[in-house]
Amino acid sequence: MRNHIFPYLLAAALTLLGQANLAVASPRAAGPQENTVSQPSTDCSSCHPKYVQSMKNDTLLACKHAKAGMGDCTSCHDNESLKKAHEQASEPKAVIRARRYPQEFCLKCHGTVEDLAKKTANSKALTDEKGRTVNPHDLPKTPAHKKAGECANCHRMHKPSMEPKDFCYGCHHKKEFACTSCHSDKK
Prior knowledge:
The structure is a single chain. The protein is an all-alpha fold. The protein is 32% helix and 0% strand. The protein has helices spanning 2-16, 22-25, 49-53, 61-67, 79-87, 103-110, 113-119, 164-168. Mean pLDDT is 76; it is low at 6-38.
């Protein structure tokens, strides 16, 4: 809430002092003088408060990453990609298009797929209706699972992550993880 009010309080204070320049308080007021959106500041919360707040919400992965020492937006969003994204922007947006980073991006910090598989070997997150459990980071090597290994399918940073089973049930519509239950050609 504070982040939303601050620019207006600053503008009011400057107005009282007789030194106000509304272009400072509101990028939209800057008009054609300068595209302030394409020149992002280091304070992401001025345009993206929801995403910055997500780093303080214990239910979200962004918070877990922040607590692990990655509390700066540029820990994941490098300056070059930020600059490119802001070049396309015409005005500040509170909600931005979600980006899906490839698995390699996450593995830079989280180790190899094999490391993740070891860490989640006893996970019950993927237990189907028949009681069969599959390690979410060690799926059977099939063509259908090729894209299933992308981290963003289950893990979301700035919004609640989905239940891994919900993603899997998109294909395993009988809610069981045995290919032969539907596809007799897989026997």
